[in-house]
Each structure stands twice: as C-alpha cells, then as structure tokens.
Design goal:
alpha+beta; Adenine-n6-DNA-methyltransferase TaqI, Chain A, domain 2; 3-stranded antiparallel sheet; 39% helix
Length: 192
C-alpha cells in the first residue's frame, strides 16, 4: 500500500529519535539485509504498525524476479515489502527456509500467474503468501534447518558465494524431503 507523501518523510540522516531505519524491497536479499541507509519519520505509520515493526519479523521483497526473504531483528521500519510474524517464535528459520526455497518459488510462479509483471518480475503479496502450503519438519529436520539457515544468513551477509551455494543446496534438499518431492519432480523444479 502506498503512503501519500512517503518520499517527503524519508531521510538519509537520522534527524532525531522520531526517525527509524527504513528497509525496502531493494534492501531485502535472500537471508540478509543490504540496508541502503534510509530513515523514515515514525509518525507516518499507525501505532499498530510501529509496534509490528519493533518485533522480530520475516521481511519479503515485494517485487522481484525470485522470492527473497530474510529475518529482521533490528526493529527496522518497513516500506513496500511484505511482513510475516509467525505466532510460534520457533518457526522463523523454518518459514524463512521454506519461503526462500526453490520449491516455493516454483509453486508461487505456477499458482499465482496473475502476479507476473513485465521484465520477469513477480509481486509477492500477503494474500498470496498466506496461501502457500506450509509443512512442518520433524524434530531432526527442524534442528538441521535452523542450523543451515543460521549458517546461510552469516555466509550471505559475508557474500561467501561457494558456501552460499552449498548451504542453499542442503536447504533445498531438506525442503524437498519435508514436502516428499520425488526425484522427477525435483528435476522439473531445478530446471525451471
């Protein structure tokens, strides 16, 4: 949703305590934030939204070529991006791995064709995201995924490409297993 005069309330400097760090779609990468250093005046958001922003949350780039999400623990305010806050606080890493997986990217593209835009971009909006099939892993898978996500967040932030590829492969394998994806189905997803 757009906010009238949004740009007039942004700043490259934190003018005072009435301004908070602002993250937007361009700042959201897979598993990390690449903050561009903008601030936003708090008062343009409702008190309810301000409270939401102050929580740990999953932020999802709203318009991008493939799904990109990360966890924000820094109490950043959010521009035109989607936010998910799981009721079960232990699900952050699990949901992040599922959202960033090749399986869900493939599923989203196929199921929500109306979100496709020019130039290969796709809109990732909450009403559609809420329809994603979420399967919870068993205890062993949960432990593995949490460890892999934490390693991925660190490797992504440090831009360690080889490590990112290796961990991404392992995470996708875990997700395929949770969703009981066959070898044939996996091949279709991987080649799309």
């Amino acid at each position: 949703s757009s906010i009238t005069g949004f740009a007039t309330h942004k700043s490259k400097d934190r003018k005072n305590n009435e301004f908070s760090p602002l993250i937007q779609t361009r700042d959201i990468k897979r598993y990390y934030l690449d903050w561009t250093g903008e601030y936003i005046e708090n008062k343009i958001y409702s008190n309810k939204l301000q409270e939401l922003f102050k929580q740990k949350k999953i932020v999802i780039a709203r318009v991008t070529k493939s799904i990109q999400a990360t966890i924000d623990e820094e109490k950043n305010y959010v521009g035109k991006s989607s936010i998910l806050i799981p009721k079960n606080k232990e699900l952050f890493e699990i949901l992040l791995a599922i959202i960033n997986s090749k399986l869900i990217d493939f599923y989203y593209r196929a199921k929500f064709e109306t979100t496709h835009m020019a130039g290969g971009y796709i809109r990732f909006d909450i009403p559609y995201l809420k329809q994603l099939p979420v399967r919870l892993p068993n205890e062993k898978q949960t432990k593995n995924i949490i460890e892999l996500v934490n390693r991925m967040r660190k490797a992504s932030k440090e831009k360690q490409e080889q490590q990112i590829q290796n961990i991404d492969y392992e995470l996708n394998e875990e997700i395929y297993e949770i969703y009981q994806i066959s070898t044939e189905e996996k091949k279709v997803i991987e080649e799309s």
